[in-house]
């Protein structure tokens, strides 16, 4: 399998190269050259398979020989052995029509673990083959940082430097990062706010000497392998609910458009998905873009579902590329227009294409709280604010198929919002009991590029190890 850029001007890559790459050199994102198709019989044959076996079948055509099925099986067995539920992503029935797909049984209690745990092992495997090292740098306001740190701790050939704004992340979020004591994990508390941290990370990537000397790498959701790893649970859930003989719909709490794009990929691969519901909070750019064509950036509103407080959803470009007939140069022109002016109009023809698969819904904070109460009253389930946005959207949908709402975070990660809506404080799972007392390790640094680069240069390894004499 080859991967091509959505802007048509970067070289195509194989799976190993695309896993280690960030953005394409033309500013685009990598997508598979063609969508692998699964015949009905191949989907039926997934019935009763474990999560790991399902993952091997779904990912094998994308990996295209970069790893054998046996190597994939070993890798997934290690990655998902860390989850605290034997089904990895269990389905929970809410009523006759609604289901939750719990994606939060990994080490940091959010769905990002599902992809990140395997991505860490893919990095280690591929870097080992060519004796290379990478330096992962990120700025986090909480969740992505802890998922990346947990996945990359103690991996060979990877050093992780995670910047968080000192005193501005919750204690649980900070401790999920700083209590991971590993020689390759470096938490940096920046004397500044999140924007300062993000600006410093961008500046390091733009410092091309520094970036190439230490092979800087990012692990955000533009990484193709992360998306591929998320396709798996759409197959796993749909097959359990009757696919390929019965279509299923999914409602997805959406921020960067990575998770719902993985659902779209599953549909392109032949999984009978009826509707994909793009659920947004008050930050509703995707709802406007797919509904009326108004793809224009507003200001970010802070909500109780912070992982969806996003204006520009990077992965949306991948969908637009398909909707525009996979014409890279036309897509590049349209994206450059969007970047220059902060808005483009999605043409009616492309919106009609999207409407074959997608519905959208904007859910405000009152509806979000009502969905939390409904889940508690009807089935005794506590759900987090992100999940509640998607459940509210699912309840509004008029489709006939069963609707699976993706539960993207454990409710205990957002205790205050859950208490405010339901009066009940969800408990931290047993695996996090030691979190509040464990040893912490982090370094406080000023928001100064030179000081931070010096700190990293002392600890990171050059991209290619110097050959031993
Ligand atoms: C990241 C995240 C989302 C949004 O997922 P995208 O792939 O960015 O659309 C939703 N909920 C939670 C809890 C998240 O951490």
Blueprint of the fold:
Blueprint: E1 3-5, H1 15-20, E2 30-32, H2 40-44, H3 51-63, H4 69-80, E3 91-93, E4 98-102, H5 112-129, E5 134-139, H6 143-152, E6 158-165, H7 171-178, E7 185-191, H8 194-206, H9 208-213, E8 216-217, H10 224-240, E9 248-253, H11 258-268, E10 273-280, H12 285-292, E11 294-296, H13 316-323, H14 328-341, E12 343-345, H15 348-355, E13 358-362, H16 365-379, H17 385-396, E14 403-407, H18 415-422, E15 443-446, H19 449-459
Parallel strand pairs: 4-14, 5-6, 5-8, 6-7, 7-15, 9-10, 9-14, 10-13
Antiparallel strand pairs: 1-2, 3-4, 11-12
Helix pairs in contact: 3-4, 3-10, 4-5, 5-6, 5-10, 6-7, 10-11, 12-15, 16-17, 16-18
The structure holds pyridoxal-5'-phosphate (PLP).
Low-confidence stretches: 465-469
How would you state the average pLDDT, rounded? Answer: 93
SSE class: alpha/beta
CATH topology of the domain at 91-109 and 224-422, what is it called?
Rossmann fold
Please count the beta strands (DSSP E, at least 2 residues each).
15
**How far from one another are the termini?**
38 Å
Overall shape: it is globular
Q: Biggest sheet: strands, sense, closure?
A: 6 strands, mixed
Radius of gyration: 21 Å
Output the strand order for the largest sheet: 3-4-14-9-10-13
Strand content: 15-25%
In the CATH scheme, the class of the domain at 91-109 and 224-422 would be Alpha Beta
Supply the number of helical segments.
19
Identify the bound ligands: pyridoxal-5'-phosphate
Keywords: Amino-acid biosynthesis, Lyase, Pyridoxal phosphate
EC number: 4.2.3.1
GO molecular function, one term: pyridoxal phosphate binding
Domain Threonine synthase N-terminal: 2-80
């Amino acid at each position: 399998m080859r991967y091509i850029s959505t802007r048509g001007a970067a070289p195509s890559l194989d799976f190993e190269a695309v896993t280690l790459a960030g953005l394409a050199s033309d500013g685009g994102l990598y997508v598979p050259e063609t969508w692998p198709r699964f015949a009905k019989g191949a989907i039926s044959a997934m019935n009763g398979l474990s999560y790991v076996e399902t993952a091997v079948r779904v990912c094998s055509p994308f990996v295209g020989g970069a790893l054998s099925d046996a190597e994939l099986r070993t890798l997934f067995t290690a990655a998902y052995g860390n989850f605290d539920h034997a089904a990895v992503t269990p389905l929970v029935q809410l009523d006759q029509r609604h289901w939750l797909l719990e994606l939060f049984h990994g080490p940091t209690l959010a769905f990002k673990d599902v992809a990140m745990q395997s991505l860490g092992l893919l990095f280690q495997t591929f870097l080992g083959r060519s004796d290379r090292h990478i330096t992962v740098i990120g700025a986090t306001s909480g969740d992505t940082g802890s998922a990346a740190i947990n996945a990359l701790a103690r991996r060979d050939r990877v050093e992780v430097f995670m910047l968080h704004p000192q005193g501005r992340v919750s204690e649980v979020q900070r401790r999920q990062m700083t209590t991971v004591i590993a020689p390759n994990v470096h938490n940096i508390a920046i004397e500044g706010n999140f924007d300062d941290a993000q600006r410093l990370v961008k500046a390091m990537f733009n410092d091309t000497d520094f970036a190439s000397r230490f092979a800087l790498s990012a692990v955000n959701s533009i990484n193709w392998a992360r998306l591929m790893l998320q396709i798996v649970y759409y197959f796993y859930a749909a097959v359990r609910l009757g696919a390929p003989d019965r279509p299923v719909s999914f409602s997805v709490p959406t921020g960067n458009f990575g998770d719902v794009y993985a659902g779209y990929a599953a549909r392109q691969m032949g999984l009978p998905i009826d509707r994909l519901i793009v659920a947004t909070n008050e930050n509703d750019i995707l709802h406007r873009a797919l509904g009326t064509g108004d793809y224009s950036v507003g200001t970010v509103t802070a909500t109780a579902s912070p992982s969806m407080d996003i204006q520009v959803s990077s992965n949306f470009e991948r969908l637009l590329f398909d909707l525009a007939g996979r014409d890279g140069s036309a897509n590049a022109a349209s994206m450059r227009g969007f970047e220059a002016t902060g808005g483009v109009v999605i043409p009616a023809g492309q919106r009609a294409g999207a409407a074959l698969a997608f519905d959208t819904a904007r859910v405000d904070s009152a509806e979000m709280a009502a969905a939390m109460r409904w889940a508690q009253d009807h089935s005794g389930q506590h759900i987090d604010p992100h999940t509640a946005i998607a459940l509210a959207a699912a309840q509004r949908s008029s489709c006939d198929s069963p609707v699976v709402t993706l539960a993207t975070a454990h409710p205990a990660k957002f205790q205050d919002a859950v208490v405010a809506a339901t009066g009940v404080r969800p408990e931290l799972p047993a695996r996090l009991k030691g979190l509040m007392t464990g040893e912490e390790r982090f370094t406080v640094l000023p928001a100064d590029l030179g000081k931070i680069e010096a700190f990293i240069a002392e600890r990171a390894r050059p991209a290619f190890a110097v050959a031993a004499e």
